[in-house]
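User: Hey, my collaborator sent me this sequence without any context and asked if I could get a structure. I don't really work with proteins. Can you help?
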Amino acid sequence: MKKVFIYFFVFLLIFFLLPALLTKKNVEAKVSDNKEINATEEEKVENYDYKNYGTIKLLHLETNEVEEVPIDTYLVNVVSAEMPADFEIEALKAQSVVARTYTIYKIQNKKHDNADICDNSGCCQAWISKEERLARWDEGVRESNWQKIEQAVNGTKGKIITYEGKPINAFFHSNSGGKTEVPVNVWGGTGYPYLQVVETSGEDNYTQYNSEVVLSKEELLEKLKVNYSDISIDFNNNDDLKILEYTDSGRVKTVKFGNHNLSGTETRSLFGLRSTNFEIIKENDNIKFSVKGYGHGVGMSQTGANTLAKEGKFYEDIIKHFYIGVEIQDINNL
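Assistant: No problem. I've predicted the 3D structure and written it out in structure-token form, which is a compact way to encode the shape of the chain:
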């Protein structure tokens, strides 16, 4: 009887305990291998060596001084100026790659004789000094915010967006209002094949989504007279103040103001609207512009990027959502 018990115990050991031990070792080995792979990838990114474009010439418009600065040092300042630090890390990574790509595009298509790019968002790309950026954040989050943005930039070192092997003109904006716009409807020209109308849900959860501008009829006329001295509007006639045409993204293309038709972009500029995605509503003696979105609407929506990041998308997925038919590649492969 004792021998039977021993044999039974050995049987259990061989068929149950031994495979369990081997499985545990295999799992531990796989985890170890994955850690080594991740560590290797992080080391490769950390030690990335730019063959070209490692240093840029940055023009500070206020002082007219040109500063030579490492590209990723410059990009930390750019991303901190362009995107809120409390956005998801993958959204910040997407912004880092977009900003790096935009920088390289500007270097290859120069606007400034003595510099690669300037620090003005109206001309090139926003930039803020570390000191000023830290001063604007609450004291308790200053260092963590800065480190988070450094992580986003340094975690994407050397990565740029290309179309047919060339860096794209990587436009971006704050909030698309649900759909992005094609550049032809904003600036004219022939456009770019990688900048198309794409949809992004969830942007209505951000403060940038809704806004309004309310003007009296007299204020409306005064603003129009800046460019159209002969402007005349019969406010009792609904046909004298109405939207005539929309773009494929649902933005305003043409508006009738009495005896003049204006483009949506000119209307936005004249009345200080956040985007060309608006409605015109008459309210007694006032005219209200009810606006969706913030910015020109072309390229990557920053709030849209953050929405996708919250859904678990990686920065590569985010970029390929907003830019059609592109690749993400190392700048050293250009």
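In plain terms: The chain has ten helices and 14 strands. You can pass these tokens on to your collaborator as they are.
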